[in-house]
């Protein structure tokens, strides 16, 4: 059995001593952090990883029963922390990984003193007195559409890669990252993510939290970000200019500035 | 330039411009341009016709992903948008567009990001194809595949059930025949009993093979691993086969075991035994003079496991080159005459190959007609503690 660091394709960089772990969200891999993570290498020990079945992780060690809920992903985060002896560190979680970080922090509070939650949502499906933004039918439709799109990815992406000889690094990234997200894994991650309900976990978090809210974010609308902020005991809310769901890619500088302000 | 030339030139220019605009507006695909955040700034008539929106509906603050179904928007935000940001383009992703009247329309989407200059914002250019037909084909294909899989499963279950039901009475016949043999039959009766015994045994072997194969095909065969001694296994196997080899006085049976073989390994001895027995009995069957040899050598040894190479060669009749690629298919033999002359069902090698696949090991073969055949495979087996 390969080590946990090999299984999750963990990379450690930076010259700081305080560990700063970046967790990617649904649909991506650690490439997500490529424009943001380097900004923290001077002051932190930057840790990147892929969830199993994503990016360059070891798909063969994926056990479906472990990932029925987000707890399995939180276990993975904690296993990586144990292997690297992470204590009193910073957790940066994008999208669903914000709640995975919350779960990890509740289970082993000594690992992270501060949580940076980028586009968090404790529950995606609407409920009585709560607007998450989605219905159960939306989620079922997503899981169904994953099939046709992964079908499409595998057949149409190869010529795309071959067709960019002038920018070979892009082809590499695609082969190594997106193309290799396993469709079965993606479907299970989608289910675990979008059917989760972590509202009751928020008031129990002891760590200092930063909620980074984007404009026009359909995955995590502003009302949801506010909800997270209101229910965390120690939280800072920052509204970014960036639009969409991935400020780490669309506005890395603004995102880095907000995180840096929170950490100092 | 005189008046008439000028006139021709301007008509030509007008036509060119008209053509380009016309092509953009009425192309058989939807075109639109957005800012990088999805805000629509330009859209062609085709897309408006498809969706039923007025141009003004879309150019006043609407974002492109807002025209997709909610599930499509999740995929867009979590997969499409990040990929587009990272590599600057995305091709052929399936979405459903929501028309103004609420009806969905299957589409394929391509996007290309164009960076703006110092003063200008970046623009993303989108090409949208109507995928209604393609989506229908995909769905039909999926249904056809599911039906075919279901059919294959039913057939394989039927074969398993039939074989099992045939095997029980057949075993009884074979057993009763051997009892009959001991009841002091007359020489004539003994002759009939011999026919009965050999036909019964052949039929039983065939049914067992069919059962093995259907079990392997249904994915029901699993590895049952235990600690064992490779040398002892090889010795027992060869002792079992000697009887057969002795019927062919011109054929020598040679066994060579690597001295460095670790004494204890972990593996499925039943399946390994079946594989080697299949290959050795085949080799003996098709060899009339010369030798049949089994060589087991150590290829690699680590603290955890040992990689062994197994080679079974013979100086038999060989397999024609055009038959080699299909030799592992079910019900296939070296030639049609072989079935008549040597008997057998052509299932042995198919089973052998499938058994080895359980170990992710590939059975390879080389052969020259009239000179002989060599089968080989490697197995990586975990080492077991010394007994």
Would you mind describing this structure in some detail?
- The complex is a heterodimer of chains A (264) and B (387).
- By secondary structure, chain A is α/β, with parallel strands linked by helices.
- The longest helix of chain A is centred in the middle third of the chain and has 27 residues, at 136-162.
- Chain A is built from nine helices and seven strands.
- Chain A has helices spanning 4-7, 70-83, 96-107, 136-162, 168-176, 183-194, 222-231, 247-250, 252-263, and strands at residues 11-13, 18-23, 44-48, 89-94, 112-118, 208-215, 235-243.
- Mean pLDDT of chain A is 87; it is low at 151-179.
- In chain A, strands 1-3-2-4-5-6-7 form a seven-stranded mixed beta sheet, with helices on both faces.
- With 387 residues, chain B is α+β, with helices and mostly antiparallel strands.
- Chain B contains ten helices and twelve strands.
- Chain B starts with a helix and ends in a 5-residue tail after the last strand.
Element pattern of chain B in H and E: HEEHHHEEEHHEHEEHEEHHEE
Task: Report how far apart the termini of chain A are.
Answer: 40 Å
Residue-averaged pLDDT of chain B: 87
Q: What is the helix tally of chain A?
A: 9
Order of helices and strands of chain A: HEEEHEHEHHHEHEHH
Most residues in contact: chain pair: A-B, 41 and 32 residues
Number of strands of chain B: 12
Q: What form of chain A results from the Cα inertia axes?
A: globular
Tally the beta strands of chain A.
7
Low-confidence regions of chain A? 151-179
Structural class of chain B: alpha+beta
Percentage beta strand of chain B: 15-25%
| SS strand fraction of chain A | 15-25%
Shape of chain B: elongated
Specify Rg of chain A, calculated over alpha carbons.
18 Å
Name the structural class of chain A. alpha/beta
Helix and strand topology:
The complex is a heterodimer of chains A (264) and B (387).
Chain A: H1 4-7, E1 11-13, E2 18-23, E3 44-48, H2 70-83, E4 89-94, H3 96-107, E5 112-118, H4 136-162, H5 168-176, H6 183-194, E6 208-215, H7 222-231, E7 235-243, H8 247-250, H9 252-263
Parallel strand pairs in A: 2-3, 2-4, 4-5, 5-6, 6-7
Antiparallel strand pairs in A: 1-3
Helix pairs in contact in A: 2-3, 4-5, 4-6
Chain B: H1 3-26, E1 30-35, E2 40-43, H2 45-51, H3 55-59, H4 70-87, E3 89-98, E4 104-114, E5 123-130, H5 132-181, H6 187-217, E6 226-228, H7 230-246, E7 251-257, E8 265-267, H8 269-285, E9 290-301, E10 305-314, H9 336-342, H10 348-357, E11 364-368, E12 372-382
Parallel strand pairs in B: 7-9
Antiparallel strand pairs in B: 1-2, 1-5, 3-4, 4-5, 6-8, 9-10, 10-12, 11-12
Helix pairs in contact in B: 5-6, 6-10, 7-8, 8-10
């Amino acid at each position: 059995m390969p080590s946990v660091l090999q299984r999750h394709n963990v990379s450690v960089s930076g010259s700081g001593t305080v560990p700063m772990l970046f967790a990617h969200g649904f649909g991506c891999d650690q490439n997500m952090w490529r424009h943001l993570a380097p900004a923290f290498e001077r002051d932190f020990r930057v840790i990147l990883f892929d969830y199993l079945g994503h990016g360059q992780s070891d798909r063969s060690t994926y056990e479906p029963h472990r990932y029925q809920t987000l707890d399995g992903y939180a276990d993975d985060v904690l296993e990586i922390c144990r292997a690297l002896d992470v204590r009193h560190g910073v957790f940066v979680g994008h999208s669903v990984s914000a709640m995975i970080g919350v779960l990890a922090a509740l289970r082993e509070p000594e690992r992270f003193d501060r949580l940076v939650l980028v586009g968090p949502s404790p529950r995606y499906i609407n409920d009585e007195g709560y607007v998450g933004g989605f219905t159960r039918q939306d989620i079922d439709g997503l899981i169904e559409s994953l099939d046709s799109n992964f079908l499409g990815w595998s057949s149409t992406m190869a010529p795309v890669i071959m067709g960019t000889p002038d920018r070979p690094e892009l082809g590499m990234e695609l082969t190594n990252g997106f193309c290799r997200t396993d469709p079965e894994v993606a479907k299970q991650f989608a289910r675990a993510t979008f059917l989760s309900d972590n509202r009751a976990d928020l008031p129990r978090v002891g760590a200092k939290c930063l909620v980074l809210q984007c404009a026009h974010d359909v995955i995590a609308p502003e009302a949801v970000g506010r909800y997270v902020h209101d229910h965390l005991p120690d939280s800072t809310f920052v509204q970014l200019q960036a639009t969409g769901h991935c400020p780490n890619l669309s506005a890395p500088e603004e995102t880095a500035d907000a995180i840096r302000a929170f950490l100092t | 330039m005189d008046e008439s030339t000028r006139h021709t030139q301007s008509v030509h220019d007008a036509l060119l411009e008209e053509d380009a605009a016309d092509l953009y507006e009425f192309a058989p695909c939807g075109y639109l341009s957005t800012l990088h955040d999805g805000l629509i700034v330009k859209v062609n008539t085709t897309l408006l016709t498809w969706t039923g929106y007025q141009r003004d509906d879309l150019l006043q603050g609407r974002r492109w992903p807002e025209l997709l179904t909610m599930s499509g928007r999740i995929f867009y935000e979590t997969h499409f948008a990040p990929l587009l940001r990272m590599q600057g383009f995305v091709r052929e992703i399936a979405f459903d567009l929501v028309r103004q009247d609420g009806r969905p329309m299957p589409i394929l989407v391509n996007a290309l990001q164009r960076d703006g200059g110092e003063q200008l914002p970046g623009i993303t250019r989108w090409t949208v194809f109507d995928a209604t037909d393609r989506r229908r084909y995909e769905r039909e294909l999926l249904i056809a595949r599911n039906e075919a899989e279901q059919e294959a499963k039913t057939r394989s279950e039927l074969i398993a059930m039939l074989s099992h039901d045939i095997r029980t009475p057949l075993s009884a016949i074979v057993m009763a025949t051997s009892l009959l043999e001991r009841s002091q039959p007359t020489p004539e009766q003994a002759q009939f009993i011999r026919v009965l015994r050999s036909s019964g045994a052949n039929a039983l072997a065939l049914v067992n093979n069919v059962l093995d194969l259907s079990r392997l095909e249904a994915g029901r065969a699993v590895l049952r691993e235990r600690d064992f001694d490779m040398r002892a296994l090889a010795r027992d196997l060869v002792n079992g086969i000697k009887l057969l080899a002795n019927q062919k006085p011109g054929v020598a049976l040679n066994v060579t075991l690597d001295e460095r073989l670790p004494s204890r390994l972990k593996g499925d001895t039943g399946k390994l035994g079946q594989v080697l027995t299949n290959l050795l009995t085949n080799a003996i069957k098709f060899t009339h003079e010369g030798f049949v040899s089994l060589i087991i050598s150590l290829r690699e040894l680590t603290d955890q496991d040992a990689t062994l190479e197994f080679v079974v060669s013979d100086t038999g009749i060989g397999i024609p080159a055009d038959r080699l690629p299909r030799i592992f298919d079910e019900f296939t033999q070296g030639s049609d005459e072989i079935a008549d002359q040597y008997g057998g069902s052509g299932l042995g090698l198919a089973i052998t190959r499938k058994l080895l696949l359980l170990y992710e090991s590939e059975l390879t073969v080389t052969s020259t007609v009239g000179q002989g055949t060599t089968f080989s495979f490697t197995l990586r087996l975990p080492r077991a503690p010394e007994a």
